[in-house]
Design goal:
- The chain is mainly β and 114 residues long.
- It contains one helix and ten strands.
- A hairpin with a 6-residue loop joins strand 4 and strand 5.
- The radius of gyration is 13 Å and the shape is globular.
């Protein structure tokens, strides 16, 4: 069974930064586009960033220029560097393939508040 383990969330002030990490199984990581998703209270889960195996990336307009997704193929890990964080970035962040193919992990909570 594919497992996804997200980490790196926390409480940060507006304008601050966080780096999220997601460890995935080798097979899933190497065969798929990987993405970071988020779900804010009362809202649908949304894809915020994706990266293909060759390194090309795409971002939601709401995070473009502030977030950077990257991957380490040797470690089967995908990262999300989040800068200039805003209160509206507050959500539980998840990783999965794009489109999702595995059960969702526990996610990691990101709270942006002063």
């Amino acid at each position: 069974q594919v497992q996804l383990v997200e980490s790196g969330g926390g409480l940060v002030q507006p304008g601050g930064s966080l780096r999220l990490s997601c460890a995935a199984s080798r097979r899933m990581f190497r065969l798929n586009v990987m993405g970071w998703y988020r779900q804010a209270p009362g809202k649908e889960r949304e894809l915020v960033a994706r990266i293909i195996s060759g390194g090309s990336t795409n971002y939601a307009d709401s995070v473009k220029g502030r977030f950077t997704i990257s991957r380490d193929n040797a470690k089967n890990t995908v990262y999300l560097q989040m800068n200039s964080l805003k209160p509206e970035d507050t959500a539980v962040y998840y990783c999965n393939a794009d489109p999702p193919i595995a059960s969702w992990g526990q996610g990691t909570q990101v709270t942006v508040s002063s």
